[in-house]
Amino acid sequence: MSSAYAELAAYARKTATFESLARLGGWDQETYMPAKAAEARGEQMSAMAELTHQRWTSEEFARLLEAGEADPQVAGDARLSASVRMFRRDFDRRSRVPADLVAEIARHQSASQQVWKKAREASDFEMFRPYLEKMIALMRRKAECYGIPEGGELYDALLEDYEPGARASRIEAIFTPLRERLAGLLREIARGTAPSEAPLEVRVPEQAQHALGLFVLRAIGFDLEAGRLDTTTHPFCEGLAPGDTRLTTRYREQRFSDALYGTMHEGGHGLYEQGLPKDRHFGEPLGEAIGLGMHESQSRMWENFVGRSRAFWEWLLPHANRHFDGALDGFTPLDLYRATNTGKASLIRVEADEATYNMHVMLRFEIERALFRGEIEAADIPGLWNEKMREYLGIEVPDDARGCLQDVHWSFGLLGYFPTYTLGNLHAAQQFEAIRRAHPDLDDQMARGEFGAVLSWTREHIHAKGRQFLSDELCEQITGEPLSADPLMRHLEGKLREVYGI
Amino acid sequence: MSSAYAELAAYARKTATFESLARLGGWDQETYMPAKAAEARGEQMSAMAELTHQRWTSEEFARLLEAGEADPQVAGDARLSASVRMFRRDFDRRSRVPADLVAEIARHQSASQQVWKKAREASDFEMFRPYLEKMIALMRRKAECYGIPEGGELYDALLEDYEPGARASRIEAIFTPLRERLAGLLREIARGTAPSEAPLEVRVPEQAQHALGLFVLRAIGFDLEAGRLDTTTHPFCEGLAPGDTRLTTRYREQRFSDALYGTMHEGGHGLYEQGLPKDRHFGEPLGEAIGLGMHESQSRMWENFVGRSRAFWEWLLPHANRHFDGALDGFTPLDLYRATNTGKASLIRVEADEATYNMHVMLRFEIERALFRGEIEAADIPGLWNEKMREYLGIEVPDDARGCLQDVHWSFGLLGYFPTYTLGNLHAAQQFEAIRRAHPDLDDQMARGEFGAVLSWTREHIHAKGRQFLSDELCEQITGEPLSADPLMRHLEGKLREVYGI
Question: Which CATH architecture has domain B162-502?
Answer without folding.
Answer: Orthogonal Bundle (1.10)
